[in-house]
Amino acid sequence: MLVVLMAAGCMSGAGMSDFGGTQGSTVTTGGAPTTGVTPTTGGTAATDGPATSVVGGGRGCSYRQEDWYALPDPGCTPGVTNPNVSEANMGQTICARGWTATVRPPESYTEPLKRQQMDLYGDAGSMSGYEEDHLIPLELGGSPADPKNLWPEPGASPNPKDDVEYAANRAVCRGAMPLVEAQHEIASDWVSLGRSLGVLEGTN
């Protein structure tokens, strides 16, 4: 398994907003999230989570594997946030029922991107075996279209990461977790976040 570094953002099974631009915030995984910057292709692996192994290698991107879960390459997919989502407007955006559907990009955009990113990750299998997924999901204010927030996640949809996304959204909307913290944690290591939220097996 491997990861992407694309120049046109997309995802198939998840949504995206403002898919004509890339004016989000890059969330690097080695420290606190950054805000108000143009996304870059950089990113460093989290240093405070469980040990991970690198699996395979494509044209510059490699998946990390933690137990039986796949994580994207932090250099290719650091995660990018949607500048139109903030703590102040969560009630009208990520916490509003049906909002993600209003920012979801069409498959005509996400499918070609998935194919390109699969090539970067070295995935030669059927496209149906991968979900073009937002690393920082729409329901946590992830960029809808920036390719640095999209990656070809192995496995069909729904998948375990979907449970983590839902649980994190509920925690943020209940006020149990700050939005920026949730964005950083899911971009750094969605598996560790899922375990801390009690929706994935294993321990941190």
Q: What does the radius of gyration come to? A: 15 Å
Count of discrete alpha- or pi-helical segments spanning 4 or more residues: 4
Whole-number average pLDDT?
78
**Strands across the major sheet, in which order?**
2-3-4
Helicity range? 25-40%
Number of domains: 1
Low-pLDDT windows of residues: 1-23, 28-54
- Give the topology string: H per helix, E per strand: EEEEEHHEEHH
Major sheet attributes: 3 strands, antiparallel
Ends apart, CA distance between termini? 23 Å
The secondary-structure class comes to alpha+beta
How much of the polypeptide forms β-strand, as a percent range? 5-15%
The geometry reads as globular
Q: How many strand elements? A: 7
Task: Describe the protein.
It contains 4 helices and 7 strands, in the order βββββααββαα. With 204 residues, the chain is α+β, with helices and mostly antiparallel strands. Helix 3 crosses helix 4 (179-196). Residues 1-23 and 28-54 have low confidence and may be disordered.
Key descriptive features of the protein:
204 residues, alpha+beta, 3-stranded antiparallel β-sheet, two-stranded antiparallel ribbon, 7 strands, 12% strand, disordered N terminus
Nutshell version of this structure?
The chain is α+β, with helices and mostly antiparallel strands and 204 residues long.
Record the SSE blueprint.
Elements: E1 25-26, E2 53-55, E3 63-66, E4 69-71, E5 80-81, H1 99-103, H2 107-121, E6 130-134, E7 150-154, H3 160-173, H4 179-196
